[in-house]
Amino acid sequence: MTQTSPTQSSADPTLGPVARFLKATEIDTRLLGMVGALVAIWIGFHLYGAIVNGNGAFLTPRNLWNLSVQTASVGIMACGMVLIIITRHIDLSVGSVLGFTAMVMGIVQVWILPDYLGLGNPLIWVIACLVGLLVGTAIGAFHGWLVAYRGIPAFIVTLGGLLVWRGAAFLLARGETISPVDATFALLGGGPFGAVGAVGSWILCVIACASILWMMVSGRKARKAHGFPLRPLWAEYTLAGLSCGLVLAATLVVDAYPWPKGIVSQYAAANNITVPEGGLFISHGFAIPLLIMVAVAIAMTVMMGRTRFGRYVYAIGGNPDAAELSGINTRLMTVKIFALMGFLTGLSAIVASARQTSATISLGQLDELYVIAAAVIGGTSLAGGVGTIYGAILGAFVMQSLKTGMVLIGFDAAIQNIVVGIVLVLAVYVDILYRKRAK
Amino acid sequence: MNKNGTPLVEMRDISISFGGIKAVDHVTVDLYPGEVVGLLGHNGAGKSTLIKCLSGAYRPDSGDIFINGQKAVIENPRDARSFNIETIYQTLALADNLDAASNLFLGRELVGAGGFLNDAEMEAETRKIMGRLNPNFRKFNVPVSALSGGQRQSVAIARAVYFNAKILIMDEPTAALGPHETQMVAELIQELKKQGLGIFLIEHDIHAVMELCDRAVVMKNGQRVGTVNVNEVTDDDILGMIILGKKPPQAY
Fold it and tell me: Is residue A282 part of a domain?
């Protein structure tokens, strides 16, 4: 009764059941398309493996857990790239900046700090992370300044950056690989100990579901208070069910992936636990890199949708002149956007170098292309003004799934590159077709 | 209209040139509360350039601007806004990808607890003001790229009205509109005039000028040809000023 309003959306009898469902739930058809593509890729690789190689390895807890860890680095940076592309810029330097930042952090925690603080000091990983974030942010801000206040196109500034920072990373350590990184620092990259375990995962699952429900209830209340049109109740229940179901499924998957036997016996020996006859089942749970990426995605989504900063990013992308005439300081905004990109690259460098437990000269190579591809596959328009964080995250999963899937079924690197390239072009073409039709 | 008091705006001896070409050459204009002053001239006569000095988009090479008799320094659009100067641009300065409420409040968003945007409040306010200006307006939740020219223009005007503009600059506000929508804008201008706003109207359509303006300033080649009280001259007089630069006896 309460949901009757002048513009009741689900009442249109001319629409078919699917269209009516989409309209009532306000699910974006693009989002649906991307999820569909991702699921198709997953099932496709699994079936191909099962039929051709006799071993369907894709849809296993182990592979999906690894996929979540491998996606994190590109996914975190893709969140920042969305803002850059929305404002009609591009950043080609993220891979090199990641490599440089990782090298700086490696030097700080392996060569410098142990001499002053002693090996394994808990301050080491904290200082290393702070230095990494600071260096990343500073480089990003510098790029932004060149673009905004010196009028050099972002394409050129960051193309220069691509060469400069990779070269600088080489000079810093004379091309050496710096390892091993601090033990606590390494946890940020995942691995059996770099995950929150079964109990932690269930706690996070409950918190996530509770937040989803709370957001839906309070959102509905706010709309009601202003007399805006509401979704029908059945649509609300369906949405809530879907979202919580997804969180639950993810939790079940990561909890179904046990520690390897060697790690279990090591752990048991260290903690005086006797391993029973059939082995001890210890779940990984959600990996820390995945949680970092999810936290970044949530924070960025809130920022884009609910703060002035986000609103200005979209306004600048939609019409830079209008934004300037509306009193927005577009130059300063550009510096801030590039600085944010740098910050996220720093964060990504932490995750990537922690995962490899070392800083190598080639860390992050070609990442810029994967990051841009993730943002673009996720629906960020290179013409500016359009893009979402969740799209970029999904795009990152698509790119990583392709990469992982082809490795699993034994395609060699040359074919991998060809497929990834074709998918990128195809995704943009589909996006163009979609926008034409939407008009 | 009270011509004896202090003018709302006085632009005195304004000059600005681009690459050696004098776009505006020692031009002086003024504007009183409750008055509509038309700015006329051919394309490239310098009307838009002159007015952009007032809206903060350009900075004049020389000359002074006085607001309510006080010397005003306007270096960017933010400064202009602080003097309650609002501009409705020919090119419709709207961000196409945002909805009506986001455009109306762009640069001046309502924020709630914790600095988060209060979108519900902004949409409610937008519904209120659009109900007053354009009661047929319904498209609140779509990007303004989906709106018609008139609907977009009403969003641009709503923005100026909502924030209590004292000085309104309209650059060919009806150029992209159909007859019905043009009538709507004309009524709106009369309404704003009654409320005591001063309006600079850049306009090509001589009939619109005769109908809406109290005074008309004619420019040619960056210079001011003359100023006339519209009710003292015929449209032929004004056309003569625009085309030939010929000053009728009533002009000053």
Answer: no
CA pair distance A238, A242, nearest whole angstrom: 6
Overall domain count for chain A: 1
**What CATH number has the domain bearing residue A428?**
1.10.3470
The partner residue sitting opposite B123, judged by closest CB among A228, A307, A315, is A228
Its pTM stands at: 0.86
CB proximity B252 to A under 8 Å: no
Report the residue from B89, B107, B123 with minimal CB separation from A327.
B107
**A376 min Cα distance to partner chain B (Å):** 17
User: Which of A334, A308, A348 lies closest to A145 in space, CA to CA?
Assistant: A334
List the domains of chain B with CATH numbers: 1-84+165-252 (3.40.50.300), 99-164 (no CATH)
Q: Which amino acid is at A48?
A: Y
- Which of A228, A308, A319 lies closest to B95 in CB terms? A319
CA distance A181 to chain B (A): 38
Quote the minimal CA–CA distance from B29 to chain A in Å.
23
Distance CA A273, CA A267 (A): 8
At residue A287, the 3 state secondary structure works out as strand
The ipTM is 0.79
Q: Is residue A325 part of a domain?
A: yes
Structure tokens at A62: 């182990």
Q: pLDDT band for position A158 (50/70/90)?
A: very high
- Give the number of beta-carbon pairs within 8 Å between A and B: 76
Q: CA–CA separation, A351 vs A72, rounded Å?
A: 8
Rg (CA), chain B: 18
- Which chain A residues touch B89 with a CB distance below 8 Å? 325
pLDDT in tens, A352-410: 999 998 999 899 988 999 999 999 989 898 888 899 999 999 999 999 999 889 988 88
Half-sphere exposure for A342 (CA within 13 Å, toward CB)? 26
- Yes or no, beta carbons of B97 and A228 under 8 Å apart: no
What is the C-alpha separation between A87 and A80, in angstroms, rounded? 11
